[in-house]
Amino acid sequence: MDVRICSKVACGAGASATLTYDYADSMVVVGPLSTRVEPHGYDLCARHAAVLRVPQGWRIVRRDPPPRTPDRSAS
């Protein structure tokens, strides 16, 4: 499995979120790291995802990752 790195210049941290833009609605969506690399998605580390700023008049929608289910094979 390839390690995906934060898209921010000079940041070498591992990505943990994916950012996408919805230009029609002036909205930025930040959610869990996507399962595959998309040409219009930007991978961000936890720090950059948390401090993200958007242009005035835009809004940020944050999607939480799905809850983890217990691994039943470990019992």
Structure description:
The protein is mainly beta and 75 residues long. It has one domain (1-64). It is 7% helix and 27% strand. The protein contains 1 helix and 4 strands, in the order E-E-E-H-E. The protein has a 4-stranded mixed beta sheet. The mean pLDDT is 89.
Give the secondary structure arrangement, pairings included.
Elements: E1 17-22, E2 27-32, E3 41-44, H1 46-50, E4 59-62
Parallel strand pairs: 2-4
Antiparallel strand pairs: 1-2, 1-3
Helicity range: under 10%
Amount of beta strand: 25-35%
Q: Helix segment count? A: 1
Number of strands: 4
Please tell me how large the radius of gyration is. 14 Å
Spatial strand sequence of the major β-sheet: 3-1-2-4
How many structural domains in the coordinates? 1
What global shape is seen? globular
Structural class by secondary-structure content = mainly beta
Mean pLDDT: 89
What string, H for helix and E for strand, traces the elements in order? EEEHE
Spans of at least 5 consecutive residues with low confidence: none
The description of the largest β-sheet is: 4 strands, mixed
Distance between the termini: 26 Å
